[in-house]
Amino acid sequence: MTQNLFKVSVLLDEQFLRQSKDYFFNEVWSVFAVKGLLGIDEGTVLVQDICQNEEDQNQLIFLDSDIAPRHRDWVGDQNQSKVWFYFSNLAEISYFTNWIKKNYLNLIVSSPVEEPQKDWNAEWKKNFKGILVPPYYSVLPPWHTDLDKESQCKYTLIINPGAGFGTGTHETTQLCLSAIGQFEKNFAMQIDKNKQMLDFGSGSGILAIAGALQGFKVDAIEVDELAIENSKENAEINHVFSKIKFYKELKKKSLTKYSLICANILKPVLLKFSDELVKRLDQSNRFLLVLSGLLENDVNDVRKKYQELLNDDGIKILIEKNGEWRSILFYKI
């Protein structure tokens, strides 16, 4: 059942943002949480635009602007900011507006706007139809399989989208899927029952499942427990649960060597774990190492670091691109 939704904006100036914002939001929640307040939206910002510390940049691609790190507050360069307040009814918006005018005289409040009544979950499902990475993979949600009839792709992945864990729509995921799909054909690899794959930063498990469908035994590494649960569900849907083992971190004492390693994350993480990932490669035979999640300016630093660690003239390097995103493939055939 859908619910009426009304929103009103408040314009915060620079001085208010710097001195009173946190206190103001806390007061609004304490007064209106039981009076129909459904949420506060400050928008989202690119994490690379707000973080100077690489450790912060590793955490999220987007941040709610209210939880941006305080050592580099996102509002530092803003003269003013429009914040939306969501309520379940107009009466409470009227009360909220009068309360603002009485207690915060300098703030400008807009007229209320009614959001159309929709089943937003159904709308999102209707518009999310999956993606194709021909000729290898079609990635589809459980409720929309008609795309597969026309795809003629070799493998079909069914992914039940979780909260931000990846649905295959991002270019970096597609770059990795394309590389995995080429593993046998372009890199002349023969997959036997002993071939091992590592998916480092597995998210919803798309890459791990793709490898499992091709015959790999897969270790999937993911720090987010909710993402692990989502990936386990997806592995069950695709009937490859027995072929994938899920971990929160790389086992330090593990002697497992991998013929295929995929790491679809960010530059700082790829650099931080470069020694560990190279150590896990089975360099005694043919292998493929896929590093993704890179912009063009990231490529040289990451390529140089891994090239130094691999230190083998027989290793080939291929840079793939999709839009503004890049992946680096190190392989030995």
Fold and architecture overview:
The protein is an alpha/beta fold and 333 residues long. It has 2 domains: 5-117, RRM (RNA recognition motif) domain (Alpha-Beta Plaits); 170-332, Vaccinia Virus protein VP39 (Rossmann fold). The protein has helices at residues 14-19, 21-32, 47-50, 54-57, 90-103, 120-127, 146-151, 171-181, 206-213, 225-237, 267-272, 274-280, 299-310, and strands at residues 5-13, 37-41, 44-46, 62-64, 80-87, 108-109, 113-115, 131-133, 137-140, 155-158, 196-200, 217-221, 244-247, 260-264, 287-295, 316-322, 325-332. The strands form 4 sheets. It has a 7-stranded mixed sheet with strand order 13-12-11-14-15-17-16, sandwiched between helices. Strands 1, 2, 5, 6 and 7 form a 5-stranded antiparallel sheet that branches. Strands 8-9-10 form a 3-stranded mixed sheet. Helix 8 packs parallel to helix 9 (206-213). The model is unreliable at 45-77 (pLDDT under 50).
Task: Lay out the secondary structure.
Elements: E1 5-13, H1 14-19, H2 21-32, E2 37-41, E3 44-46, H3 47-50, H4 54-57, E4 62-64, E5 80-87, H5 90-103, E6 108-109, E7 113-115, H6 120-127, E8 131-133, E9 137-140, H7 146-151, E10 155-158, H8 171-181, E11 196-200, H9 206-213, E12 217-221, H10 225-237, E13 244-247, E14 260-264, H11 267-272, H12 274-280, E15 287-295, H13 299-310, E16 316-322, E17 325-332
Parallel strand pairs: 9-10, 11-12, 11-14, 12-13, 14-15
Antiparallel strand pairs: 1-5, 1-6, 1-7, 2-5, 3-4, 8-9, 15-17, 16-17
Helix pairs in contact: 8-9
